[in-house]
Write a structure and sequence with these properties.
alpha+beta; 7-stranded antiparallel beta sheet; two-stranded antiparallel ribbon; 5 helices; 9 strands
């Protein structure tokens, strides 16, 4: 009986530490946005951060659907330039999507490695294939590959998606709740 009480005491004393270690091991890294720009920011907040992030050639467009698009370019030499698009859905002043366009398909392995280093392992291949089937239908070009990373417990609505096309790559940082207009 004394051993059982002693065991319970140890478990009770260790439980908080074990929960912290287990939670840290299971928690996915937070998906906050791109560079210093965070999902959920206002257009003015995004504009303020672009120069600090090295984004140049900034333009803005209001689509026929009412979306606000802020486009820019990151990088110096043409071979490493990345075009960026910041999307604010119609009726919202909160950033819901950032798309980074990479001009070289050959960079796919390096881009995926960088994303994996930042967000952990992408979803299992079967899940990625299912998402690819669901999302590919409305795409302007047929994707050749797809990888996805999901947010942590508090960010189930946030994703990073790597699309591989014949002539370029895109990486999307998105908040599905903001993108659908549910804030």
């Amino acid at each position: 009986m004394t051993q059982v009480k002693q065991l319970r005491g140890w478990i009770g004393a260790l439980a908080p530490a074990l929960l912290l270690v287990a939670g840290a091991a299971l928690a996915a890294p937070a998906i906050t946005g791109y560079g210093s720009v965070e999902l959920g920011m206002s257009p003015d907040e995004v504009r303020e951060r672009l120069a600090a992030d090295g984004v140049t050639e900034v333009t803005e467009e209001q689509t026929a659907d009412g979306d606000l698009l802020i486009d820019g370019r990151l990088g110096g030499a043409p071979a490493v330039e990345t075009d960026l698009r910041y999307v604010f859905p119609a009726g919202s002043d909160r950033l819901a999507l950032v798309v980074a366009f990479h001009p070289e398909v050959a960079d796919q392995a390096a881009v995926k490695e960088q994303l994996t280093a930042e967000y952990g392992q992408p979803w299992e291949e079967e899940m990625a294939e299912w998402w690819l089937e669901q999302l590919a239908e409305g795409m302007p070009a047929t994707p050749l590959g797809f990888s996805a990373w999901g947010g942590d417990e508090q960010q189930r609505n946030r994703f990073v998606r790597l699309w591989t096309f014949e002539e370029y790559l895109t990486v999307e940082y998105l908040d599905t709740r903001l993108l659908s207009g549910r804030q």
